[in-house]
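Lab notes, practical 5.
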Amino acid sequence: MFCSICGKQLKNGVRFCGGCGNAVKEQSFSTPTPYPVYPQPQSAQIPLSEPEPPRAQKRLNLVILGVLAVVLIISGGIFLMFGRSALPVTSPADHLSLGERFLLEMNYEQALVHFLALIDIEPMNPRGYTGAAEAHIGLGQVDEAIAVLRLGQERLPDNVEIRDMLDGLVPAAVERVTPLPEPEPESVECEEYEEAESEAQIAARLLAERLIELYQTSGYYAVVVEMRTDEFAEIVMSAMAELDYQTIIHITDDEFGGGFYLINGQVHVYIGGFDGVIRSGHGVWIRVNQDDDGYAVFTGEFARDMPNGFGELIHMADESTIEISQNGIAVIRSIRFGTFAGGFEHGQITFQHLAGIGFPCLHVWSYTAVDGHNQIIEVREDRSFVALCTECNSAWLLHNDRRFGVFGFVL
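Output from the prediction step:
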């Protein structure tokens, strides 16, 4: 205890302070009252959320999500732009669908490629011809549209859509073939049967009439079969020997007829339009191989006695005589669609060929030709490329020493 006056520490129980002498007052001590303890209020149990990730982790997650979104957007855009054209296209339905889509997008060049492919794969589908004609019209190629419609009318003579579209184009059509230097005039000798006919002349005329009827009722392959007979060769060669002519023409009514042409010792047949004795208008030009069952056919537009305008050139090999080359290629059929001038390829050409054993791909190339010469699109490792196959991306190489065109007109 302590003195309340001077503060000196004192022993318990003393009555007087040894420091100041004053009486020491008694000091009482009590236990302090403890603070009251109140119960904690009961609160609802609130589930705790997972701890938030660090900011760096959140930022990384956002970057990853952003990259994925961009990839999806780009992939969707590519699919919308190119659709199934980036995938292998082999069925008629694929070509038809893509052709219709490219027409709507006014991408007439791509539409034309697919409709021409549809014609090749499914020649009895009228939409191939009308679609190709619409694409040609979109490209400003009215003559080519007329030519492809005439090809369709030849194969589908009862189709109303092809006939109506052709009737609407023909009255407005004008000559649009690029003018070429006029060839040196050649003397054309023919027999018009105005005088008394010999037996050889009569036989040649009747043969021409039979071929015209076969072509109009059964198509060009019926003419090919007839040209392979011994009777055909005997009649034509006898008439040419008697008349000392290399060309015999028989013209029926409406400036339509048929003719036999001896070129390099081989007989060619023309059936179609004439202007006098000059081949003019739509026609078919046929040659059969002398030593096997192969043949070649050109169907298209003629002017100035030569292929001028849109046409289809087909070469068919005799499968029994095909020799497989070292790389396994054996071409069975080749087809060229496009424009021709003076008998040569001239303009946009679509070239397809079907290979046999060991090379199963149907190649489709599209390239530009000028006066029979392929135009280079790319040079790689000293090799010049003309086109890349739309089916397998294989290259069509430049042939420097060749001019491509219609047989009988290209030396």
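Observations recorded by the TA: The longest strand covers residues 344-355. DSSP finds nine helices and 13 strands in the chain.
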